[in-house]
Design a protein that fits this description.
Number of strands: 8
CATH class: Alpha Beta
Shape: globular
Order of helices and strands: EHEEHHEHEHEHHEEH
CATH superfamily: Decaprenyl diphosphate synthase-like
Strand content: 15-25%
Bound molecules: 3-methylbut-3-enyl trihydrogen diphosphate, magnesium ion
Largest sheet: 6 strands, parallel
Radius of gyration: 18 Å
Strand order of the largest sheet: 5-6-4-3-7-8
Length: 247
């Protein structure tokens, strides 16, 4: 399905085919801070501001689904200090986000295993989901303690449970059913995945869902990422020829 960008000031965006679902691997906070002689946590704070700016921008231009990678299942192995400051940042951020995204009618969902976060944070995540679920704007998936392999393992276990209890039969298992057991159940697969910071890897993000996503790698570090960079990524995406295995 092709959606065309809402009229914005930028000519090139007006002519681009708008992806229905964008994924962003918000990477490069640490390097941004290092370049400035600042502690890594300063990079994470700067990255959080960019997250807010780019989320609102996606909603403004008419993106229907945005998935941002905020914390992976592997990020727990970082120094305790860094993990602690990230958790603190998530908490303060979620409190603000509750009010902030309301103006834009954004539906907030968390994808990933919430149970490893402390109770306050889990409560905030659930509050954000509950209070936004009846809105009609863009769906924002925040991937926190998310790992795609973990997501697939969880789906397989749940499918096994449902087969064992008789809710499902083995014959029902197909690609659609597996999609329905993932955190992103009911949502379209990402059309475009953007990775700032110049790394050419997936880092355990939406492995199943990105089978036919278009990747755009950009050299900017996430805290430096501008609305014009998002426009640029959409423009690149829009010039790609998606063949899905056909000719
Ligand atoms: C992304 O930035 C944020 C998280 C993974 C939490 P990084 O912290 O990975 O920044 P770099 O890659 O070290 O520059
Ligand atoms: C991916 O970035 C995870 C997030 C942006 C949250 P990482 O910095 O953890 O990925 P690697 O280690 O470079 O693959
Ligand atoms: Mg990184």
């Amino acid at each position: 399905m092709a959606f065309f960008a809402k009229k914005k000031n930028r000519e090139e965006l007006t002519e681009s085919v708008l992806p229905l679902h964008i994924g962003i691997i918000m990477d490069g906070n640490g390097r941004w801070a290092k370049k400035r002689g600042l502690p890594r946590k300063a990079g994470h704070s700067a990255g959080a501001k960019t997250f807010r700016k780019i989320t609102r921008y996606c909603s403004d231009i008419g993106i229907k689904y945005l998935t941002v990678y905020a914390f992976s299942t592997e990020n727990w192995k970082r120094p305790e200090d860094e993990v602690k400051s990230l958790m603190k940042l998530f908490k303060s951020y979620l409190e603000e986000a509750l009010a902030d995204f309301k103006d834009d009618s954004i539906v907030v969902k968390f994808i990933g295993d919430k149970s490893q976060f402390d109770e306050d944070l889990q409560k905030l995540m659930i509050e954000n989901e509950e209070s936004s679920k009846n809105r009609d704007g863009m769906v924002l998936n925040i991937a926190m303690n998310y790992g795609s392999r973990d997501e697939i393992v969880r789906a397989v276990k749940n499918i096994c449970d449902d087969v064992q209890s008789g809710k499902l039969s083995q014959d029902n298992i197909n690609e659609q059913l597996i999609s329905d057991y993932l955190y992103t159940a009911g949502q379209p697969d990402p059309d475009l995945i953007i990775r700032p910071s110049g790394e050419y890897r997936i880092s355990n993000f939406l492995l199943w869902q990105s089978a036919y996503s278009e990747y755009v790698i950009m050299n900017k570090l996430w805290p430096d990422f501008e609305k014009s960079d998002l426009d640029e990524a959409i423009k690149i995406y829009s010039n790609r020829n998606r063949r899905y295995g056909g000719v």
